Amino acid sequence: MEPQLSHQVVDSVATVVVRHPAKRNAMTAAMWRALPPLLAQLASDPGVRALVLTGEGATFCAGADISTLQGSPAEAQGLAVAAEEALAAFPKPTLAAVRGHCVGGGAQLAAACDLRLAEEGALFGVTPAKLGIVYPASSTRRLMSLVGPATAKYLLFTAELIDAGRALRTGLVDEVLPEGDLDKRVAELTRILVSRSQLTQAAAKEFANGRTDRDAHWTQQAGGSGDTAEGVAAFLERRQPRFTWSVPTPE
Questions:
Q1: Distance CA 200, CA 49 (A)
Q2: Which of 15, 68, 82, 108 has the most CB atoms within 10 Å of its CB?
Q3: How confident is the model at residue 250, as a pLDDT?
Q4: 134 and 229 both lie in a single domain
Q5: Domain contains 199
Q6: Which residues does UniProt call coiled coil (predicted)?
Q7: Among the listed ranges 33-42, 61-70, 77-86, 106-115, which one has the minimum average pLDDT value?
Q8: Are residues 9 and 117 in the same domain?
């Protein structure tokens, strides 16, 4: 099978699958290039309300295909950062579903998601120190915001792998599931995500990501959306809310 990113949309959830089984789903240059336009396509689809990123089979992503670093390491790193930033900027909730190795570029992609669920036995590592590569400043800051400076330094300085239990304790993942339960939990959590207010989610995502210039915008959106009135009415009437605000389609 040629290395590729595949995707499908089911019940308002887009699932993007990293497929490169010959190299434990390592990302090639073509795959890094393909991710931002794919995310833009899914972001513009009003039928998509959440996104799951995962790997084919028993591995999430073992990083960048090292053969791509032989030409221009700086160019290869630039492609990875562009893909990471596109994923972080996706305007709807994103979730990484991790089995097996989540290393290097794979860890970059997982960290760029809003939520991370892992199966027992998953291994995580940030490994540029094995290759003499300077980890990007933006990626370092994102990692540190998840796990704190001490764990970020441990991962970056040593390039050692940590297990799912330690990843959970340090905040790198949100939940660890027994073997065989990951898909069920991902389906359950995404059903919850798509049932909630997109207004709340979109505003919270911007605020959590550090944006500080749109407070007035979100106040205006909340005032005109009707979501708050619907949420209160649904609560009082003991029914499921029917939220109507949706993320605007990118121009």
A1: 13
A2: 108
A3: 67
A4: no
A5: no
A6: none
A7: 61-70
A8: yes
Say if CB 8 and CB 53 are below 8 A apart: no
125 and 84, same domain (yes or no) = yes
In this structure, the answer to whether residues 144 and 231 fall within a common structural domain is no
Does residue 125 share a domain with residue 233? no
Check residue 74 and give its pLDDT.
Answer: 79
- Mean pLDDT, the chain, rounded, equals 94
Residue 207 identity (one-letter amino acid): F
For 65, the token pair is 């295909």
- Distance of alpha carbon 71 from alpha carbon 136, whole angstroms: 18
Token pair listed for 114: 């809003």
Nearest to 209 by CA among 90, 41, 83, 116: 90
53 strand-pairing partners? 16, 96
Give the total number of structural domains in the chain: 2
Dihedral sign (CA 36, 38, 44, 47): negative
Q: How far apart are alpha carbons 142 and 136 in whole angstroms?
A: 10
Residue 123 lies in a domain: yes
Write the DSSP symbol of residue 147. H
Copy the structure tokens of residue 33. 């290039």
Determine the Cα–Cα distance for residues 140 and 149; give it in Å rounded to an integer.
Answer: 10
**65 shares a domain with 9:** yes
**Where are the extended beta strands (E) located within 145-186?**
162-163, 175-177
For 20-72, write each residue's pLDDT tens digit: 999 999 999 999 999 999 999 999 999 999 999 999 999 999 998 877 666 66
* Structure token pair of residue 174: 């949100």
Domain hosting 220: range is 212-237
